[in-house]
Write a structure and sequence with these properties.
The protein is of the alpha/beta class. It folds into two domains: 3-113, 3-Layer(aba) Sandwich (Rossmann fold); 129-305, Glycogen Phosphorylase B (Rossmann fold). The chain has twelve helices and eleven strands. The protein has a six-stranded parallel beta sheet with strand order 8-7-6-9-10-11, with helices on both faces. Strands 3-2-1-4-5 form a five-stranded parallel beta sheet. Helix 5 (127-137) crosses helix 8 (214-222) and helix 8 (214-222) crosses helix 9. It starts with a strand and ends with a helix. Residues 58-62 have low confidence and may be disordered.
């Protein structure tokens, strides 16, 4: 039995992208310890290991001292890149190094582990997550999932545009679909409520997914006909589960951190270099050039590719 330590990054989307590296080294007889943001813990509770430990965050000294307790790890996957990874005792340490060329994070992890194939994200969905997702979806045969949140305002497409494109799809090519607005915890609660209210006012059936954890969100996106969202943990999760997912990008680089999956597509307005030259990466306007028409057209392309016309 090997002892494996995952030091997950603070960014939840980056955490999802690192799960392929974890799956590559983890065996069912291993003991896995995960140091992650509390919201990410659910993603690892069903990882294929004999024992999974996820210490709860609890003060300034929680991270390393509470985690290792005199233990030495056989493998440390350092996705944090901070002092914690340097201090964690491990016989084998795996971390990302500066890439020689611009490439996706999945390729970075493949290079770090010497893998011969891209280490696509892996999420281990359990029965609890699927039961929670079934309650929220309510047996809908078509499900349009909207993920409008983001870790900062500049990464969020305007909520009224999300409502507009959902309205067009649910009353047009996805006629009869239930629109489900999915947020990442309390941060997105008000945003989700506002979009649902806007759609309800126009007679479009919409539901707020409420306080689903990230693994239940993964189970929900397994059921989705289409997912549309920003660069956030939920679009990364949807892509990892193979859902058709369209992600809008603005101040972050999709060439490096696009959601990774067989039916994942990205869309942006102005090029990242143009935004940087105009000083628009930090002023909150990087998403302004992504139009409702462009998102609708890209969504239809995804639907058509999946056989829904």
């Amino acid at each position: 039995m090997a002892h494996v330590l995952l030091l997950a990054p603070a960014d939840l989307g980056e955490t999802v992208l690192a799960t392929g590296a974890l799956a590559h080294v983890l065996a069912e007889a291993d003991e896995l310890t995960v140091l992650a943001e509390p919201a990410a813990n659910a993603l690892f509770r069903s990882a294929p290991a004999a024992r999974v430990a996820m210490p709860e965050r609890g003060g300034p000294g929680w991270s390393l001292a509470a985690l290792i307790a005199g233990k030495r790890f056989d493998t440390v996957i350092d996705a944090r890149g901070d002092l914690t990874g340097k201090l964690a005792p491990g016989a084998r340490k795996l971390r990302l190094e500066p890439a020689p060329v611009l490439r996706h994070r999945v390729e970075d992890w493949s290079a770090a582990l010497g893998a011969e194939r891209p280490l696509a994200p892996v999420l281990w969905v359990d029965d609890q997550a699927r039961s929670e997702a079934a309650l929220v979806s309510g047996g809908a045969t078509q499900l349009l999932v909207i993920a409008p949140g983001g870790s900062r305002a500049g990464k969020r497409w305007p909520q009224e545009r999300f409502a507009a494109v959902a309205r067009r799809l649910a009353t047009g090519p996805m006629n009869g679909a239930v629109v489900l607005v999915l947020g990442a915890g309390e941060r997105d609660a008000e945003l989700s409520r506002d979009i649902v209210s806007s759609l309800d006012a126009d007679g479009v059936e919409a539901r707020n997914a409420g306080a689903l954890d990230l693994l239940a969100a993964a189970a929900l996106t397994e059921r989705a006909t289409l997912v549309i969202g920003n660069d956030n943990a939920l679009t990364h999760i949807a892509a990892a589960k193979g859902a058709p997912v369209l992600t809008m990008f603005g101040p972050t680089d999709e060439r490096v951190r696009a959601p990774y999956g067989p039916r994942a597509r990205t869309l942006r307005g102005r090029a990242l270099e143009e935004l940087a030259a105009a000083g628009a990466l930090d002023d909150g306007s990087a998403m302004d050039d992504v139009s409702i028409d462009a998102v609708e057209a890209a969504a239809l392309d995804l639907l058509h590719a999946g056989g829904l016309r």
